[in-house]
Specification:
The complex is a heterotrimer of chains A (about 280), B (about 150) and C (about 625). Chain A is mainly α and about 280 residues long. Chain A is built from eleven helices and no strands. In chain C, strands 3-4-5 form a three-stranded antiparallel sheet. Classes of the chains: A mainly alpha (about 280), B alpha/beta (about 150), C mainly alpha (about 625).
């Protein structure tokens, strides 16, 4: 019980710190990759603090509602993750956040936000089946959807599910809004249809979304870490390597279209999942 | 403590929106040059956003004409407080060589309040960065006034 | 005791229907419908309280009922033949003859009329269906009262056709309850045919050429199912030697012999539940007045198909046929929601999504483990509530704004906030945790996770569903700020059913663990989930229903509180590159030549990928191939 309480507290307080910190590293490394010096590591925290200090401007009250629900969904999914509950449950709770992000974007008839929201829907459409397949294959290895079963599993999942891990990183790239998949909205310096789904969010409301995004980052990196759940060092190595690879991909790739994404990610993702599963059964 | 952190953060995260109000593009090139590796204003947390609703600083170039002054005003109005305006280049300051033209308003401060004037035709990126730093100080003061 | 309750559930609505037909007074009709609704609700609840039962009418009555039903059966077939002749449809005439002749042979030469005929049987499955029919059905009938008045006012009819309408609606409720509660397969067939007939009549109710055409299509497709049913029934009787459904099931897992008749019965279920390639009749049925769509074509009648499949599911557990059912069901789930994605007609989206969910239910029956069956039954319950609600919402919206195109519902919140919010709630209950539909989907995925093709299709289908529902909810709320927005007035007969259904969809999700342990668990071979602290737990996963419900509810309330702090001074016009022309509620900009231009936005419908005309051909062909494969597996 005490352990659970500590985990919940860590999820609530630690996750945004971790997520913000990751975002800071992201901007710093991206800058370095572009031969720039880059902002301080603390920059995402300054940004969010500033946003909370700005005047409240909203298009309507529904957007405020959506932003808060998005945050609630993101936080709850991280808490469930730290409590080692059912992977599918975590996924569905995270979908609450995802849908309210879209609804928040669609709250106004603004063309930029509308197009962004539609694209966000396509992004969700792209990664959802892949994530479910990832969870199902994890189930076929560990015999359970619960995260606790992954920790109980003696070998790292990465050994048995290497291709599935790559499929997960596709979902990670989409979720982090990295190139080539950053067309529903984009990150810091970049612009796409102004700011896509987030165009009409501003000030404290945008701050909430940003914090929610940190939670989501932690969730999805946590999912990656599960593939080397047998050792804490392994988890850190895996997260670091994956995140660094994400940054390289982000900086090396151009932004593509949603048609390309849907076709490419579904076909490659499904093919890799099937190959991995056949390999699993053949072994 | 949180309040202090927010106050501190205002100065550390000035997001700018850049509005070309009929400039010859000279100043615009210099403004965007600030973001390049040589000058790299992201060191100070400056991010070039595309949307006044996200911005703290409005960087305006150009002489302002009777058509786009409405857009300038509306974009300024859409920025949430605290905010600051930096007028860049001779045209932005006074209308420059276009000052006497029939359709030119001649000066950004005739439409919206300007906090910092950066002169030059075009100004050097260093000068623009100086202007940004000055602007940060003014809106810090503004925020303190408002509070 | 069961005799009275059965009377309340089956005969009362039929009598009330006849009453509505004979007494052509609006007030009397309203009263009849309300009283029938109350009786049905009470009867079904008491039946549930009574628990599992077997009831055979006492000796002279049993024979009489049986004879009456047999005669009514032939009378119904004769009427259908007459209809087919009137419309010169050779196809339907053939199908009716194909039912009547074997049925005559069956009744004359096969059934031993000397033996005591089986009567009624109620277990939790039939009781759940009865509850849904009685309560959801009654609510829809109440909703239909003001709806039909407006509908007819709109059509400028000289002579009201409401008596006939409510006659069919109420008869249908009785027939559905009869279908769920009969233990005699011949009676089941009769009630099956009654629902087909009611559906035909109600689709064609408006009498427009398109309505008649679609009604005939529904009739021939369902008659095809009827033919399959008759032959399945004869086959089952031939092998099991009885018309008692419980005995047929008990003699079930003997092997291949019974599988063919069972497969035919399932095929009948497929047509009734409008599974691909039979989906077109349900889509055509959307021309009917909306209460018909809500009652027959989403929450109850189409459930008759899955009811039949679920009823016989234990008999084919573990067979190749069952596996085939899982694949066909999940295929339907995937392709019909993909078809829904290409649609902008609200009722068509609902129709496709209904077929899709029925596909998932059938897939659950095919997977045939206790987990899957539990998922399927929960989905039957929650889908019926949410979908009935959504149909009624679309009906209400259509009467308010004169369109069922979801693009026309853009910004409905600013015009009709009450119905917009109820619709959004309905959509949320279809889409998100902690609501019942999603929890059943979660169970279905966990149950299907050993069946890779099925789970892959379910995963893709649920992602497509996310887009379909997400964009619709978004559209409804996509409105600029309006000061002092007040909920629009609504008649009690509209508001009542909507509120009860919306409240039910939310609250029943909260008590889902108890619904599971009281209603669903007793009919499973073993309990896949344990319930404690309001969580469903199993060795392979767990859903903390109540805690998540409470936390999310708290989050929603907090978000609502924050949202309510919004004041006019917070509101700014949307960003339109600085050329918006007016204040916060203005959706125009100043274009070239100083012209004021209204902005227009639209959803992605991806018709190049998911358009009806593009997909349907392939979907139907693949579905036929899969069906042949599945039926071949039964042989």
């Amino acid at each position: 019980m005490i352990k659970d309480t500590l985990l919940v507290l860590f999820a609530l307080a630690g996750a945004p710190l971790l997520g913000g910190f990751m975002a800071g590293i992201d901007r710093r490394i991206t800058a370095r990759l572009q031969a720039r010096f880059g902002p301080p590591i603390m920059q995402p925290f300054y940004d969010v603090a500033k946003l909370f200090g700005k005047q409240m401007i909203v298009p309507n009250s529904w957007q405020v509602f959506c932003a808060y629900v998005y945050l609630v969904g993101a936080v709850l999914s991280v808490v469930l993750f730290f409590l080692q509950s059912d992977l599918l449950l975590i996924f569905f709770v995270q979908a609450v956040g995802a849908v309210f992000l879209v609804l928040g974007g669609m709250a106004v008839p603004s063309p930029y936000a509308q197009v962004g929201a539609q694209r966000e829907l396509i992004q969700v459409l792209t990664y959802e089946p892949l994530l479910i397949l990832v969870f199902v294959t994890i189930y076929s290895v560990t015999g359970s959807f619960k995260i606790s079963a992954i920790y109980a599993h003696e070998a790292p999942l990465l050994k048995e599910l290497p291709l599935i891990f790559i499929v997960l990183t596709y979902a990670l790239t989409i979720k982090l809004r990295k190139s080539p998949f950053d067309f529903s909205t984009s990150h810091h310096g970049h612009q796409e249809i102004v700011k896509g789904v987030l165009t009409e969010h501003s000030g404290p409301i945008l701050g909430l979304i940003e914090v929610g995004h940190w939670y989501e980052t932690v969730l999805i990196l946590g999912l990656c870490a599960l593939f080397w759940a047998t050792s804490p060092v392994g988890m850190i190595i895996l997260i670091t390597a994956t995140y660094f690879a994400e940054l390289i991909v982000d900086n090396a790739m151009a932004r593509m279209t949603w048609r390309w994404m849907l076709g490419y990610v579904w076909s490659v993702g499904l093919a890799m999942s099937v190959i991995n599963i056949i390999w699993l059964y053949a072994k | 403590m949180i309040k202090d952190f927010i106050e501190k953060s205002r100065a550390k995260s000035p997001w700018m929106v850049h509005f070309d109000c009929g400039s010859c593009n000279g100043c615009d090139i210099e403004t965007l040059a600030c973001l390049t590796p040589i000058y790299d204003v992201e060191r100070f947390g400056v991010v070039n956003v595309g949307n006044p609703k996200h911005a703290d600083l409005l960087m305006v170039t150009g002489a302002v004409n009777h058509r786009n002054k409405h857009a300038l005003k509306k974009i300024y109005d859409q920025m949430p407080d605290p905010k600051a305006v930096v007028a860049i280049g001779a045209c932005g300051l006074s209308g420059g060589v276009f000052r006497e033209a029939y359709n030119v308003v001649g000066g950004i401060d005739k439409v919206i309040p300007v906090d910092v004037y950066v002169y030059g035709c075009p100004p050097k990126p260093e000068a623009i960065i100086d202007g940004v730093v000055k602007a940060i100080e003014t809106f810090k003061a503004k925020a303190r006034e408002a509070a | 005791m069961p005799s009275l309750l059965l009377f309340m559930c089956i005969l009362v609505p039929i009598i009330a229907g006849v009453l509505c037909y004979l007494v052509r007074i609006g007030f009397a009709r309203t009263l009849t419908v309300l009283v029938t609704g109350a009786v049905l609700t009470a009867g079904s609840l008491m039946l549930l309280g009574h628990g599992t039962f077997t009831y055979v009418p006492p000796s002279p009555w049993a024979g009489l009922v049986n004879t009456a039903i047999t005669l009514a059966d032939f009378a119904l077939l004769a009427i259908m033949f007459g209809i087919a002749r009137k419309h010169r449809s050779k196809l339907i005439m053939t199908l009716v003859v194909l039912q009547a002749v074997p049925l005559l042979f069956f009744e004359l030469f096969m059934v031993d009329h000397g033996a005591p005929a089986p009567g009624f049987y109620g277990d939790n499955l039939s009781l759940i269906i009865t509850l849904l029919v009685s309560i959801v059905g009654s609510l829809i009938c109440v909703f239909a009262l003001p709806y039909m008045q407006k509908h007819e006012a709109h059509l400028h009819l000289k002579r009201s056709r409401q008596p006939q309408f409510f006659f069919l609606l109420l008869i249908f409720l009785g027939a559905m309850n009869g279908l769920a509660l009969s233990n005699n397969i011949a009676w089941l067939y009769f009630f099956f045919e009654v629902t087909t007939f009611c559906s035909f009549m109600l689709i064609g109710h408006d009498g427009t050429p398109i309505a008649v055409k679609n009604a005939l299509r529904a009739l021939w497709m369902n008659s095809l199912g009827g033919v399959a049913f008759v032959f399945g029934m004869i086959g089952a009787h031939h092998i099991a030697g009885t018309t008692d459904i419980q005995q047929i099931i008990a003699s079930g897992p003997m092997g291949g012999a019974l599988l063919v008749p069972l497969a035919l019965l399932c095929l009948a279920g497929f047509t009734k539940s409008a599974q691909v390639p039979f989906q077109s009749w349900l889509l055509g049925a959307m021309v009917a007045p909306t209460p018909v769509s809500a009652l027959l074509h989403s929450s109850t009648m189409v459930k008759a198909g899955v009811y039949v499949i679920f009823r016989f599911a234990p008999t084919f557990a573990g067979t190749f046929f069952s596996q085939g059912l899982a694949i066909v069901g999940s295929f339907t789930f995937l392709v019909t929601i993909a078809l829904a994605l290409g649609q902008r007609n609200g009722k068509k989206i609902l129709a496709y999504s209904t077929i899709s969910n029925l596909g998932l239910i059938i897939a659950c029956a095919g997977i045939n483990t206790p987990t899957a069956l539990a998922a399927g039954i929960l989905l039957i319950i929650f889908h019926a509530i949410s979908k009935a609600l959504l149909f009624l919402c679309v009906g209400t919206i259509e009467q308010e704004i004169g369109s069922r195109d979801i693009e026309d519902m853009r910004g409905l919140f600013a015009v009709k906030p009450r119905i917009a919010v109820i619709t959004v709630i309905g959509i949320m209950t279809m889409l998100l945790p902690p609501f019942g539909v999603l929890i059943s989907k979660w169970m279905a995925i966990e149950a299907a996770s050993n069946n890779l093709p099925a789970v892959g299709m379910i995963a893709m289908g649920s992602a497509l569903g996310f887009v379909v529902w997400g964009r619709w909810a978004g559209i409804l709320m996509s409105a600029s700020y309006k000061k002092g927005l007040k909920p629009e007035p609504m008649s009690a007969f509209v508001n009542g059913p909507l509120s009860v259904l919306a409240g039910g969809a939310v609250l029943f999700s909260l008590v889902l663990p108890w619904i599971y342990s009281l209603l669903v668990k007793p009919m499973l071979a073993f309990a896949p989930y344990q319930v404690h602290f309001g969580s469903l737990d199993s060795s392979i996963g767990g859903f903390t229903v109540i805690p998540i419900f409470l936390i999310l509810a708290a989050g929603f309330v907090y978000a609502l509180k924050q949202a309510q702090k919004t004041r006019a001074r917070h509101v700014a016009p949307m960003y339109m590159s600085g050329v918006h022309s007016g204040g916060p509620d203005d959706e125009t900009f100043r274009g070239p030549m100083n012209k004021i231009v209204q902005i227009e936005t639209g959803n992605y419908y991806l018709t190049r990928l998911f358009g009806e005309e593009r997909l349907t051909f392939w979907v139907n062909n693949v579905a036929v191939a899969l069906l042949v494969l599945m039926m071949g597996g039964a042989l």
